[in-house]
Amino acid sequence: MIAELGLAALWLAAALAFLQMVAGALALRTGPDGEIAQISRPSAVVQGTLALVSFLALLYVFAVTDLSVELVAANSHSMKPWIYKVSGAWGNHEGSMLLWVTVMALSGALIALVEKRLPERTMQATLAAQGFVALGFYAFLLLSSNPFARLEPAAAEGLGLNPLLQDIGLALHPPTLYLGYVGLSVAFSFAVGALITREVTPDFARVMRPWVLVAWVFLTLGITAGSYWAYYELGWGGWWFWDPVENASLMPWLAATALLHSVSVLASRDALRVWTIMLGVVAFSMSMVGTFLVRSGILTSVHAFAVDPERGTFILFLLAIYIGGALLLFALRASTIAEGKRFAVASREGALVVNNVMLSAILAIVLLGTLYPLLTEAFDVRVSVGPPYFNPVSAIFAIPMFAIMAVGPLLRWRRDRWGRIGKEVVLIGALLIAGLTAIGLLADIAFLPLLGLAFALTLGIASFLPLRGRRLLKTPLATWGMVIAHFGIAVALFGMASESAFSTERLAALQAGQDTTVGPWRVRLAAVEPQAGPNWTALAGRMVVRYEGDAPVEIAPMARSFWAPAQQTTESELVTRWNGQLYAVLGGEAQDGRWQIRLWWKPFVTFIWYGGGLIALGGVLSLIGRVVGDIKRRRVRRRVDERREDAEAFA
Amino acid sequence: MRGIALLTLLVAAPVAAQDAMPPAPYAYRQLDDPAQEAVAQDLMETLRCLKCQSQSIADSDAPMAGDMRHQVRIRIAAGEKPEAVRGWLMDRYGNYVSYSPALNTSTWPLFAIPGALALLAGALLFRRFRRQR
Fold first, then answer.
1. What Cα–Cα distance (Å) separates residue A555 from each residue in A360, A531, A551?
2. CA-to-CA distance for A603 and A495, rounded, in angstroms?
3. pLDDT tens, B44-99?
4. Final residue of a domain: which of A603, A619, A634?
5. Which of A177, A217, A362, B10 is the most exposed place for a label (fewest CB within 10 A)?
6. Structure-derived torsion over alpha carbons of residues A178, A188, A115, A477, reported in degrees to the nearest 10
7. E strands, A476-631, where?
């Protein structure tokens, strides 16, 4: 019953998305005061509510493990812990697509309810575009991936969820990324709306910016969490594999980062109009490409749980319509939109343009490296593109970008002289050279990590220079956001470079009671004991680990065996210190009663994710700053209006 | 001297295998010489585990990855150059095994396009800023 309710709500939501699209499009002709224009906002709100009802229905059937629903039977199990039953609702193809449209419909409802700053015509066009995008996803769900399909007769027991995915990481990771993707879809709708009515103005940028910021914050969090999840769950200490699925989340992030900077220029300087629209289209395209890569089953990877060419074709079709349509519209309209205000090389806009071009180039490299092997595979040539390609090639563009990133925020808008910030530039240059020489002489490390460390040091200090000479409490929140996000980049870069430069590994076969060392740690295997959990049994290697001079700590990494479905996983155990992490894994039993142990000492590896957190925090601060500023401005305007009315009444 | 010791080790491996040794003792065992181990580790990180999904042989529990780690380690220990080991593995398993794409007729765009991108980026910036003056 609940499942049918969910399905009905989904169909109705699709119908309303259609209505929203048609009404918005017709309102472009009849004008914003016509009757038809009154329809699109309410239909967006009702559509959001219905999609939410549908998603709640799905959560319910998963929570009670209703095995007469095909999706539940295929992905859940009555013995699974409750939290994973619920999170299992989106741990599969159909459920995750339903989550996607639900978030999209809710954001549509939100802009329909609160967004009053744009000209009503642009709003109607935006809502029409939003309805059009949503409709495609509803069609995809209803026609090729119905999450509520019944199973007749009901299954006696579910098949279970991949144990790798039974983790708190999974519960949070996909929704976070989807919020990011969906935020970009809203930005896309705004871009299309503005393109249709040719109203690419600073006001438009101010309306679009919070959505880009939200998307960007969630993408940052999603990528950071996903990387940490891979790091501790896969059991070999790797944190980024340049896996196509990871790239699928990185590409929208790169595009969103470029868009974020470009939309800021448009909002404050009325420049880079065409570029902002272009990036809006590209950012959403990248989300779609990512969805296509992950959902179509074109890749064989942990994430690609939909192995079904029919769906792949459907998403490819949607991709072609949206991206092709948007690019066509862009090609037709771009020439009619003036480029916006001019600026010099030595200006903040100039620095931002350089950075945007570099980010776009990195994006192109990642896209190339991800798609190229798929392309050659179609011709039966199998090529692998991995870290040895991505790292140096993206560094070609990342290094100049970091250099500009250190200097750019110090420049003034429109036109500046390098001489004015001469002292700072010299300081930054000196830091960089000093860092390169000192680290190069002291430590024998590869070139890229060396560059990474030196730039991390330079950026870490340079990111705070924009605060110099300002009263810290009076500095706008958005500026703090920028400073902290840039500092976060430096912190993450430091973590990445030092993980790559200073990690030490120890593989050992130990008997209970024996010990070994890794870096500054001494590790003793105390005992190997059996353990049992709700749906697994495990061997736990109790170890006493001791950092030189510190008190010993006891840990117990496990080798788990799940029984539904039957699968082995390694549960690594991490000991975190301020200066790094000890990573311990219990492997198989070797001969003569010894156990395989894998240990890593990874100095400052945690900074990668601290950095990610700081970047997201910067985004949040900036978002709060912008939204609060906007609310204040609205209040002031309202008060001015009231006073004028009072004055008129007096007169 | 070390060479001879390692040679004996290579020769001894099949013999030792008969007394219940696992077939790939260096799958989970490091080389004694840290410098050689580092070279082997760097190489392993750039070789694809053919039985896994987007993981290098340095990141996998698959038995085949273990065998390949063993091969890489004993070959490095025997004094082979990393690129020679990579070549040997590519001869056996195809170019697919190497994460570092080699420049050939089917991969040249991977190298040409970044170059073109760099030129394009330069041209774009040059044009944009020259017009201002």
1. 44, 14, 13
2. 8
3. 999 998 887 778 898 888 888 888 999 999 999 999 999 999 999 999 998 889 99
4. A603
5. B10
6. 70
7. 504-510, 515-518, 521-532, 536-547, 553-555, 558-563, 566-571, 573-577, 580-589, 595-603
Question: What CA–CA distance (Å, rounded) separates A409 from A347?
Answer: 9
Which pLDDT tens digit goes with each residue over A337-371? 877 787 888 888 889 999 999 999 999 999 999 98
Please indicate, yes or no, if residue A332 is contained in any of the structural domains. Answer: no
Determine the Cα–Cα distance for residues A618 and A604; give it in Å rounded to an integer: 21
What is the interface size between A and B, counted as CB pairs within 8 Å? 119
Dihedral angle computed from the Cα positions of residues A466, A467, A468 and A473, in that order, rounded to the nearest 10 degrees: 160
ipTM: 0.81
Whether A369 and chain B come into contact, CB under 8 Å, resolves to: yes
One-letter amino acid of B27: A
Looking at the partner chain, which of A393, A596, A598 has a beta carbon nearest the beta carbon of B114? A393
Predicted local distance difference test score (pLDDT) of residue A588: 82
DSSP alpha helix (H) spans, A76-201: 82-87, 93-114, 120-144, 168-197
Determine how many CB atoms are found less than 10 A away from the CB of residue A58: 27
Q: Looking at residue A399, what is its pLDDT?
A: 94
Sequence ranges of the domains in chain B: 2-102, 104-133
Taking only the tens place, the pLDDT of each residue in B86-132 is 999 999 998 889 998 888 888 889 999 999 999 998 888 888 777 55
Q: Look up the pTM and report it.
A: 0.90
Whether cis (ω within 30° of 0) applies to the bond prior to B23 is: no
Sign of CA dihedral A477, A481, A484, A487: negative
3-class secondary structure, A217: helix
Asked if the Cβ–Cβ distance from A345 to B46 is below 8 Å, we say no
> Hey, what amino acid is at A134?
A
Strands laid side by side in the A595-603 sheet: A504-510, A595-603, A580-589, A573-577
User: How is residue A100 written in tokens?
Assistant: 């996607």
Distance CA A597, CA A589 (A): 9
* Residue-range definition of the domain harbouring residue A532: 504-603
Q: Enumerate the residues of chain B whose CB falls inside 8 A of the CB of residue A275.
A: none
Task: Give the gap in angstroms from C-alpha B1 to the nearest C-alpha of chain A.
Answer: 25
Q: Kind of pairing, strands A558-563 and A553-555?
A: unpaired
CA distance A210 to A115: 11
Say if A599 falls within a structural domain.
yes
Q: B62, B48 in Cβ contact below 8 A?
A: no
- Per-residue pLDDT, A443: 84
Using the Cα atoms of residue A104, residue A110, residue A115 and residue A121 in order, give the sign of their dihedral.
Answer: positive
In chain A, how many domains are there?
2
CB-CB: which of B48, B109, B124 is closest to A386?
B48
The CATH number of the structural domain formed by B2-102 is 1.10.8.640
Q: Which of A160, A193, A210 is the last residue of a domain?
A: A160
Q: Are B70 and B79 in contact (CB under 8 A)?
A: no
- Residue closest to A286 by CA, chosen among A312, A321, A247: A247
